[in-house]
Amino acid sequence: MTQGISKRLCDFRGLCERSLFLLPLFIVNEVTAKDQGRPNILCITCEDISPRLGCYGDRVAKTPNLDAFAESAIRFSHMYTTVGVSAPSRSALITGMYPSAIGSNYMRNFTRPTSMPKGIPPYQVVLPEGIKCYTEFLRAAGYYCTNNAKTDYQFDSPLTAWDELGRDAHWKHAPKGMPFFSIFNLNVTHESQVWSRADQPFVVSPDEIEVPPYFPDDPVIRRDMAVMYSNIYEMDRQFQALVDELKAAGKWENTIIIWYSDNGGPLPREKRAIYESGMLVPFMIRFPDGYRAGEVEERMCMFPDIPATILSLAGICPPDYMQGKPFLGKYAEVTPREYVYGARNRMDEQVDKQGAVRDRRFRYVRNYNPERSNYNPNAYRLQMPMMRRMIELLQRDSLNEAQMRWFVAPRGEEEFYDVQNDPYELHNLIGDPRYAADIDRLRKELDRWIDEDCPRWRQTELENQEMMWPGARQPHLRKPVCVKTKAGIVVESEDKGVSFAYQVNGKGYTEKHWFLYTGPVKLRKGDRLSVVAVRAGMKNSEIVEFINK
């Protein structure tokens, strides 16, 4: 697979050879208690918001805590996901890869099988050989990694990805002196909360709302948007509670804090879209030493860049296979992206394939199902009152031209927008001869991206599924083998692309915890080693027991 990024002079094995986990298990705690010189990293993510915050210039939003945070952080103005929906976006966030490159671009492939179309059995994405959850690299370097609590990667989270995963997972549980990497996910701004929290008091009056021109100015639309803004206010409060907890524990001065949304806004024509409204997200990062505090970073970045950047911030060289470019830290690339890319496939039960590429000014969109409209009657979204209201107004022929564009079919094979001068992307310029050169340039760039970075995207979902789960059956990993050597117990497997998790005498740091295997494990006489082989999307091996006699 062509990477499209410069070669880096490190790999996972090289990192593992330098890892503290190569030392005997019984002295790991003592070693990690020493100052590793690495910063703590805390990621606070929210769901389904576009840059609707005061610090991003939104005059309606009430986000006092994030606005204050922006004064001490770098605020990114051009951070993009690959598609305006969570699971494909989160697969990019855990791998540093384009979802369309690894077969994870189909929304809901196993966690909600009732929303899948007929003929496609549920399955999990099997990551290509060698591609790991990037947290394994952090763990190998001595980080204690926790996730509270959402994953949604299009595959079950491998046992090797996190030291702790769940609603009780917390950086506070890290062994003394051990740096932590922690993610907390705030769900209150999710699309579903627009109808689930409709009875909560408004923080923003519906009369204050600035309705985008692609929505009718209607009381139902204003009400749902007021709920959305009120949910953002509550998310802002929850964000500050996590920050206050960090400060109270004395960790504020040695922790990098990253905050962002997992995709664009929750409303129709926003979520699931590959336009600005679905792909552009807020992203801020704060350094303890005040580095670039209050600055605005205008370089174009994408979600695959975030894992590479987190590794770079931790002083870890990102692996060669990653398609993301680190934009901060030790291994930051000086040259910014010239383009960002979008790819949309099946969204729950609705199949609609689109590709997009955007530069600093323009967006080019290719419709692989031009007979369809951009609106798809997604059953989940139809729970939102404003969506049902828009359908009602459509049937009454009460929408204007801008509001109708989302529903028009056929829509044509190509779209082209001057986003700089048409931020809502309402005027398709594909036939305008003044833009012929730019249209041709972006059209060729989309072809290049698909050919070089995402060739699997040319396959159907069934072809992708068969590649990963032959015969619609989950591959089962074989038992690992433990070999005693002078260096310690070496773990091997006949299966490719696997990682190993292990415990000694029935526990890691705790009875529920499993260590990440990175090299020979030294045991004392009588110690019992338990090992399991894992690979994303595959069924774990049986646990193998080895007693050191």
Quick structural summary:
The protein is an alpha/beta fold. It contains 14 helices and 19 strands. The protein is globular, with a radius of gyration of 24 Å.
Describe this structure in words.
The protein is α/β, with parallel strands linked by helices and 549 residues long. The protein contains 14 helices and 19 strands. The strands form four sheets. Strands 1, 2, 3, 4, 5, 6, 7, 8 and 9 form a nine-stranded mixed β-sheet that branches. The chain has a four-stranded antiparallel β-sheet with strand order 10-11-12-13, covered by helices on one side. A four-stranded antiparallel β-sheet has the order 17-16-18-19. The model is unreliable at 1-35 (pLDDT under 50).
Helices and strands in order:
Blueprint lengths: L11 H6 L10 H5 L7 E7 L17 H7 L3 E7 L5 H10 L3 H4 L32 H6 L3 E5 L15 E2 L14 E7 L6 H4 L22 H30 L6 E7 L14 H4 E7 L9 E2 L3 E2 L2 H9 L26 E5 L9 E5 L3 E6 L17 H11 L5 H4 L9 E5 L17 H18 L7 H8 L12 E5 L2 E5 L6 E6 L10 E2 L11 E7 L9 E4 L2
Parallel strand pairs: 1-5, 1-6, 2-8, 2-9, 3-4, 3-5
Antiparallel strand pairs: 2-7, 6-7, 10-11, 11-12, 12-13, 14-15, 16-17, 16-18, 18-19
Helix pairs in contact: 8-11
